[in-house]
Amino acid sequence: MRITGISTHVVGTPWRNLTYVQVHTDEGLTGVGETRMLGHTDALLGYLKEAEANHIAGSDPFAVEDLVRRMKTGDYGRAGEIVMSGIACVEMACWDIKGQALGVPVWQLLGGRANASDNRIKAYANGWYTVERTPEAFHAAARAVVDRGYLALKLDPFGTGSFELDHAETLRSLSLVEAVRDAIGPERELLLEMHGRFSPATAIRLARELEPFQPSWLEEPVPPENLKALKKVAEKTTLPIATGERVHDRIEFRELFESQAADIIQPDLGHLGGISEMRKLAATAETHYVLVAPHNVGGSVLTAASLQLAGCTPNFKILEHFNDFADAEIKKVVKGAPEVVDGYFTLSEEPGLGVSLDTEAAAEFPQQQARFDLWAEGWEKREGSKERTR
To answer: Domain Mandelate racemase/muconate lactonizing enzyme C-terminal, which positions (predicted)?
Structure first.
């Protein structure tokens, strides 16, 4: 079997563009992969066009390791977010093809079920707080998440905070967390996101104030580039630290593991080079007693691929899910889209990734000039820009 070529499809919303890549073969099998790029979608498409000619066309889709190696190192330049995201889309599509050809789900090819004895993977909701930034509005929105059956949810309550957070904004942010904890009760998981906003001193101060609300983790409390700053925060709080969504090569996690500064890593399958790279990273994390909770801000193909990893990873914690609350209508572009029921996904038994792209439905959501600025007032509403590029 050989790859004959790829086709790309961009599904657009005002705040995010989702790029789907179909990999076609000479035996009629087609696999699909997905990533979500912020502000670099056209650059990704340009890279994939060149990579198709240089590396992808003519390759054996079963030889995933070889294809990833050539795409990552064959152009000699150091691979960053764009290249690793392109690799991820093609790589997960190849796993999809392999699973279809062999008639088994991808998780079976990766070692079989490891932590889903009841065939379920826990989910947490994100993208639900697109409301006014008041305790009353956040309380009502959080109740809607609970009513939908979720057992965990995440929020960034800190507005446009950057490095510092003044006293008034601190009180306001704490009031939002208090309202959400009251809405969801003590038994559900509350996850707190900081988006790398703060200096270590501010993050430590806020962590101390947040401890009474018992969050399951504090995510990216400082910018991701400085591991010593992250370690300083980790050493001054009892809260678990989560980070990793903006790291695009598993090798770059080495120093993070050595520092013991993180309890949970959050690599994005769509940016880290795909399923194989994530599986290797998860195994390394296990040797450091670190849990894996992938960043997952894409659509249903990326979710399906992340679930394949979840099924075979002993140290998998929980999977993020946006699409019940943010752009729920785009779920129709994927046939067999995973759904959350009573707080859990069900691990698919279908061959490959268990999903397929509906290209006609995808065409209903053309690429947009998507804009998402976490330092702009009202970013949590995820309204973005409504101007279309094509």
So the answer is: 135-240
